[in-house]
């Protein structure tokens, strides 16, 4: 099974900051990585699919990159509503799997 | 607008059973793979199971294989998760999630609000 790791596990940042979250797969997964945002008490929301495609309706300050084993989610200028937990997911093969999450907090 | 509404959660004793349902609307349910994802209290997301459009392809996480059964009724736009031999570690919010794909698992573009399952004596 493919294991996904994320770093950092938590991050403190300020409104307006540029933030990058990293996701690493235990083996090459081409570009089969998706990113989700989850706010407390809410369902996850799809942000990015296939590593770099922006889901409809998601602000352009969110971007994704990477292929193979290393992937990044970047928020170019943090907004107050972006403070949440972010998860990567691989769907290269089954079982699909999520990373452990990165909690983004207000500094 | 895509809408997914889970129901059937609750408190159950260890070893007991529960059946979750997910009512779908706002899209052609029969054309998409559907998934269950769970989240234990204070923990991350864990994929549980996926089912293709005609139920030809079904996948389970090892943690639930042999105890949980996923199914769907395309005529009633409904997804189900039959959970047997429940354990304390199955305690979680269970989310129903629509896949982008009709034939495989790609990405989960719509999610329900979740249904809480508590396994405790």
Describe the SSE topology:
The complex is a heterodimer of chains A (107) and B (121).
Chain A: E1 4-7, E2 10-13, E3 19-25, E4 33-38, E5 45-49, E6 53-54, E7 62-67, E8 70-75, E9 85-90, E10 97-98, E11 102-106
Parallel strand pairs in A: 2-11
Antiparallel strand pairs in A: 1-3, 3-8, 4-5, 4-9, 5-6, 7-8, 9-10, 9-11
Chain B: E1 3-7, E2 10-12, E3 18-25, E4 34-39, E5 45-51, E6 58-60, E7 68-73, E8 78-83, E9 92-99, E10 108-111, E11 115-119
Parallel strand pairs in B: 2-11
Antiparallel strand pairs in B: 1-3, 3-8, 4-5, 4-9, 5-6, 7-8, 9-10, 9-11
Structural class of chain A: mainly beta
Instruction: Describe the oligomeric state of these chains in a short phrase.
Output: heterodimer
The count of helical stretches of chain B stands at 0
Helix content of chain A: under 10%
Topology pattern of chain B, helix = H, strand = E: EEEEEEEEEEE
Radius of gyration of chain A: 13 Å
Structural class of chain B: mainly beta
Q: What pair of chains forms the biggest interface?
A: A-B, 23 and 22 residues
Strand content of chain A: over 45%
State the end-to-end CA separation of chain A.
Answer: 36 Å
Task: Assign a percent range to the helix content of chain B.
Answer: under 10%
The residue-averaged pLDDT of chain B reads: 97
Unreliable stretches covering 5 or more consecutive residues of chain B: none
How would the global form of chain A be characterised? globular
